[in-house]
Amino acid sequence: MNSRAATAIAGVDSCEVLDSRGRPTVWCEVTLAGGAKGSASVPSGASTSGHERCELRDGAKRYGGNGVLRAVANARHVLGPAVEGLDASDQRTIDETLISTDGTPDLSRLGANAVLAISVATAIASAEARGVPLYRYLANSLGVEPLLPLPMVNVLSGGAHAGGCLDVQDFLVVPLGATSFAEAIEWAAAVREATRREATAMGYSADLAADEGGLGLALKRNRAALDLLCAGIEAAGLRPGTDAGIAIDVAASQLATPSGYLLRTEGRELDAAELVDELASWCAEYPIVSIEDPLGEDDWPGWELAARRLAGQIQLIGDDLFATDLERLERGIQTDVATAVLVKPNQNGTLTGALDVLLRARSAGLATVVSARSGETEDCWLADLAVGWAAGQIKVGSTTRSERTAKWNRLLRIEHRAGPGAPYAGAAALART
Which residues are catalytic? Predict the structure, then answer.
């Protein structure tokens, strides 16, 4: 059997599995003619953009309507047969075939969850057929050197990730001064634990983890989370702003009302300009290095205002704004509203679609952050994407919960195998190129 015949897709299997929130998701296995196999289960978000590709859910009684048996059936009986016989190493053709078989702009007929599971499993199988890890296979395909990413690590959670105990969705630590990935995760873990101890000493119950492993604390004000995280950084023996900075995911679409943005925990409603003023005051007082989604996903004028006020000081990330969609990113580039883009493969539906967004952002000088979702699985392929695509940054949650540590552990193993001096992006990844 020649090499091309050996990498032809011979079959696709699929079943329903559970994500980290106990909700069903799609698992697929792709088998190649030469015997290589690749499998992948896909994540699901809680704080989602209205512009994401569509997960297909069953809507029946089982699992509260969240079952995915229809998507599983589509993977096995419709999408799988459509790609059988195709060369797994031609990822773009595979993904284009999956998209055209679905036939809808948002992949709603057969399900973006089914499409992505086959897309990722195909790449993993192709890497296996060549006897190389996924990150190396991806890097070779792009002609780049693998790069270990700077991590953003969740410490405090609110919004949709923690029952709205805070308005702001995530407060994260960014280990600016670490010189290796292993040191960065060590510092981040120390900050999370020190923050937990500080919260306990203040009388808070700090033993329950939110969706992404961060601490879910009912603080009275959003600014109190910044004070607590700074205290945690210092208690961990690190210098705020030098050794460790703070990243914020406002997830402002979750705060949006017809007339502005409601901070429910504080009983305040702000218009876009007032919200930008609030965030600017935080940046002036705290070692904030990155803010994600400071305005709503369709508030383009608000984003332009935020960019004028903040883009020269911090990294300004579009997540819900761009939804890993090339057309929306293009509008963002033309209006210069962000300095970085979050890349979530399940927002797009295919690996090549997500990669196209990352490469276009890079060509425009934007920083790129590969990101997990709040509903994750034990799979660690996302870590390989960050390294193989040389994204520079990664955001997968906290240093607790095994669906989070699976990704961190994969990166630690990659760094270990690479040996001393493994290329690590570090704080330079925050800079706009």
Answer: 212, 344
